[in-house]
Design brief:
Helices cover 18% and strands 30% of the residues. The longest helix has 21 residues. With 294 residues, it is an alpha/beta fold. The protein contains 4 helices and 13 strands.
């Protein structure tokens, strides 16, 4: 498999990955390439040992991003509803929706992401190689966010759960209005993972002290666990869900809500995850109160 990089119509380099393929068979091949410049397109071909093209070329347009841009990978394995991440998209924040089978099996490839969100992950579908790659990436400084749901047993693999800040014990159905916002904005029952804290901190808790949003370090990285998948809050606005994601991802507040305040801290005057998330949840409550008054 040969990948050529082009910029302004001129070839700027190439990467080659050898592969053995029997006649009539199919195989997924992942090529990890690091171009020296910012290419505008890729040309992918499949060639034999004599450099004869057997398939392709396929043209793939790519878009470069600025160094300070934030790219969040979103993988929905069990979660079906809208997680509410679309409002996060801006000139500097991008949400990349990824199929589980497209996730790399080599950890350096995850460096293209600033954070990875796995909704209701299934370790049997991820496979040992991807789980190992994700663990190595997080250990090296990556940010992993995991949400649980009805199929919590699908992630109950020690090789994966050792990264989590909680111990999974099951699921139960609770009345959402008894939970803090934005979970409490949903009217009706919702599935919540039953978990006990292992390490780190419970940033948001339920009425009985059960962890709803937990965080812990794993190596040099950070792992966040959501006991309720925001996608299950079907009647809650994407904007309200996005405030939770903004706090979890430690994204700066929107400029309209975060006036310039020199010396006040980068994240709206707060420098710790728990303070910032609580700030975002408070803003949700204020926004909903304002709607009721209108």
């Amino acid at each position: 498999v040969l990948v050529r990089f082009s910029e302004n119509g001129q070839q700027k380099g190439a990467s080659r990955e050898p592969v053995e393929l029997a006649t009539g068979s199919k195989k997924r091949v992942t090529v990890y390439a690091r171009p020296r410049t910012g290419p505008q397109s890729l040309e992918v071909t499949f060639e034999d040992a004599r450099d004869r093209v057997r398939a392709g070329p396929e043209q793939v347009s790519i878009q470069t991003v600025e160094k300070d841009d934030v790219i969040v990978g979103l993988v929905s394995m069990g979660g079906r509803g809208d997680p509410g991440m679309r409002p996060l998209t801006s000139a500097t924040t991008r949400i990349a929706v990824i199929d589980a089978e497209e996730l790399p099996e080599a950890w350096p490839a995850y460096d293209a992401l600033d954070a990875l969100v796995l909704r209701d992950p299934d370790t049997s579908k991820l496979g040992p190689a991807r789980v190992a790659a994700i663990k190595a990436w997080v250990s090296a400084g990556g940010v992993l966010i995991v949400s649980a749901g009805e199929k919590w047993r699908a992630m109950d693999d020690p090789a994966f759960t050792e990264m989590l800040p909680v111990r999974l014990e099951g699921v139960r159905t609770v009345e959402a209005p008894t939970l803090p916002e934005p979970f409490g904005l949903y009217e009706g029952p919702v599935v919540m993972a039953v978990a006990s804290p292992l390490r780190g901190a419970s940033l948001v808790t339920g009425p009985g002290g059960e962890p709803l949003v937990s965080e812990a370090r794993y190596g040099l990285g950070r792992v966040v666990f959501l006991a309720v998948d925001p996608g299950d809050l079907t009647s809650v606005s994407p904007e309200a869900k996005a405030r939770l994601w903004r706090g979890v991802l430690l994204l700066p507040p929107e400029p309209i809500d975060d006036p310039n305040n020199p010396g006040g801290g980068y994240y709206g005057g707060y420098n710790t995850p728990s303070q910032f998330i609580q700030q975002e949840l408070s803003r949700i409550a204020l926004a909903e109160t304002a709607k009721e008054r209108d």
